[in-house]
Amino acid sequence: MNHTPDSKGVLSCFTRWTLYYILFFSLFHITVISTCICITRWALCLLRLSFIGRRLFF
Asked: How many domains does the chain have?
């Protein structure tokens, strides 16, 4: 009977850390994806602006 609470504690700790890891990983992925989307949008806007500027000035 001594082993049951110990194994349960280890299991709960493991599940807790797994949940934390999944949460952290999903947040990290969302941040990376949103940053990439923002960067690509800015790059497209800058390219468009430079193209318009080139057409206007030259």
From this structure: 1
